[in-house]
Amino acid sequence: MRGYQREETSRFIAFRSHWGFEAEFCNPGEGHEKGGVEGEVGYFRRNHWVPVPQARDLAELNEQLLAACCADQQRVIAGRAESIGAAMQAEQEHLLSSPEEGFDLAEVSFPLVDSAGCVKVRTNFYSVPVKAGTRVQAKVYSAYVEVWQESACVARHERCYGRQQQVLDLEHYLEVLEKKPGALAGSKPLEQWRKAGRWPTSYDRFWEELRRRHGRQAGTRQMIVLLKLGPQQGWEKLQEAVETAVSLSCWDVAAVEYLVAAAQQERPTSEALEVGWLGRYERPLPVMNEYDQLLGVEVGR
Question: What CA–CA distance (Å, rounded) separates 285 from 283?
Answer without folding.
Answer: 7
